[in-house]
Amino acid sequence: MVRAYKMKVSDKLKQAEDSKQPYFSFEYFPPKTEQGLANLYDRIERMARLGPVFVAVTWGAGGATAQRTLELCSACQGVFGVETVMHLTCTNMDIAQVDAALEGAKAAGIQNILALRGDPPRDAEYWTACEGGFSHAVDLVRYIREKYGSYFCVGVAGYPEGHIESTDADQDFEYFVAKVEAGADFVVSQLAYDANVFIQWEKKVRARGITVPVVAGVLPVQSYQSFRRLVFLTKVAVPEALRERLEEAKANDQAVKDLGVEHAVAMVRQLQAAGVRGVHLTTLNLENSVQRVLEALGMGEAAMKSTGRALAGQAVTGQAMTSTAERRVWDDFPNGRWGDARSPA
Length: 345
What we know:
Elements: H1 9-18, E1 23-28, H2 34-48, E2 55-57, H3 66-79, E3 84-89, H4 95-107, E4 112-116, H5 137-148, E5 153-158, H6 169-181, E6 186-189, H7 195-207, E7 214-218, H8 224-234, H9 240-249, H10 253-273, E8 278-282, H11 288-297, H12 301-307, H13 318-329
Parallel strand pairs: 1-2, 1-8, 2-3, 3-4, 4-5, 5-6, 6-7, 7-8
Helix pairs in contact: 5-6, 7-10, 9-10, 10-11
């Protein structure tokens, strides 16, 4: 069992920025099945060796995944030795539920929280606050600070293209500033497919005097259908060249993945050229595309070489490498005709 000395993510991000080297983090979600969770643990064990500054675990609306989120966070922090950020949303959460979640995080050794308003539940068209709950992420940040002081390192989301429900870009930016001023220690941005969108937004953030670390959200396209759904839900801008190439390749799942990797690599390189060192990679609980992006960028390379892409303690024989490769790719396309309950994704 690996145990890491606990450190607030804001401190780790400062160290990473001071090193002047590129860095990255990963995001996972709690699988629906026990076998999916067990398989995700195998995946996280391998991916932890790539050297992420932190990993983040999402939170289901109303605490629907509370126990599994806490379990996954506890394993990432205590077993795999990676500093872990637990998402916490306001959706269908009253104050008692928020307190239960935060106390559970403390008991599990989790000191880092990403405070979010959250999306509407799947069966709801619009987001509404529950009775005795919070209406905005800024309310959650203030509550955490008022009740828990500086114990938690609190992150918030940034929206380079504005929140999907906002009709006033300037007012939306002021809401973001309020979240930071309420006590946020770091920012993770909503994903973008146009690097210039993030670069210009970050300049605006810094011009406003905000100095906390800001990590750029990046999601390599994993499948055409998930890409379409994501664009529909987030209204994120997509460069026309990327949209056209994905449309041409949509019938070929591997070609879509290859395009996703290619675009993510180009985007991160553009971010780095503009001085943006940190990227937050949404994995969708999949491994290959993210690892290919890091390999192409030369990030996490030392960790990959030191493990030989095999589990610790295994000889790098043909048999071991084949076994590891099978574990890495067996559910690369988990949402096929019927899906697979074993899949972490």
